[in-house]
Known about the structure:
Layout: E1 4-8, H1 12-23, E2 27-31, E3 44-46, E4 49-51, E5 58-59, H2 63-68, H3 70-74, E6 78-80, E7 94-97, H4 103-107, E8 113-115, E9 122-125, E10 129-132, E11 138-142, E12 144-147, H5 151-157, H6 165-170, E13 172-183, E14 193-195, E15 203-206, E16 217-222, H7 225-230, H8 236-251, E17 260-273, E18 280-282, E19 287-289, H9 292-295, H10 299-315
Parallel strand pairs: 1-2, 1-12, 2-8, 12-19
Antiparallel strand pairs: 3-4, 5-7, 6-7, 9-10, 10-11, 13-16, 13-17, 14-15, 15-16, 18-19
Helix pairs in contact: 1-10
Amino acid sequence: MVERMAVIGAGVAGLAAAGALVDAGVAVEVFEKSRGLGGRVATRRALGTAFDHGAQYFTVRDERLASRLAGARHAGGLAPLALSWGEGAPAEPAFYAVPGMASLGEALLGDFTVHREWTVRAITHEGGWWLDDGAGRRAGPFAGLLLAIPAPQAAALLPEPGVFQSALEAVVMEPCTALMLTFAAPLPTPFDVDFRPDAVLPYVCRNSAKAGRPAGEAWVLHADAGFSRAMEAAAPDEVVSRLLAAFGRRLALTLPPPAGTVLHRWRYARVSTPLGDACLYDAGRRLALCGDWCIGARVEAAFLSGLAAARSLLTSR
């Protein structure tokens, strides 16, 4: 009989794990709370255009990721990060997905079922793993369960954190406020992307300069973690005003009024203190936890953590 396993979270880690499990002959079902794939590797359609409002680019150091994305790269689904930089350009080759960063999630799809808009609110272990959405839907039993979600969310979902508790408590994840902007005309700046230490606004990118993006002047601004945390309860208009002022200072411009703005608050955007291991695994319950928070704040780290978690589940078959 083919084993059934469940993956909670269709970000890069969850999709990588699901693919590796399927390759080993496991029947996999992925449960994702949103409509899209990729988690923080995200694209937001708004204001008549599309914004990469989460992860902006990624590196490919490991051959396993290179192999997995070879088809997408050959088909033009990946582009080298050849933008005009002010400061902070990566020291190694980097890429972004085309036509949006969320396309990376699509590139990692495999022969497994994805249940979109299926929020897992409770998990239990009764002759296997069962998932409950709190609204009458229940899925299971599954021989193994993999949580590919941020560490604080995993800690809250686990019925008994047990041996994982101290490890999860040691992980620190930071918030990030993303502001998406459009302008009626191009801003007169010598760069398309700039990344430097700043107490309010360390990262700005002319999103429309990336290949495959809609025409028009569109920018993504990423706020500092400290600013994001301090402004967590602030009114959106106040946050937008503060970020626009910082953006004008960064560009040394008097900004024209934006044609439109959209604010998004990422509660668990970046890992600042990672676990230090590739994943967490409880062999007795066949339960694995993974994500970039295990290794470091990189898209590729999420992919490798997913592979490690899948490998752990497979060792106890």
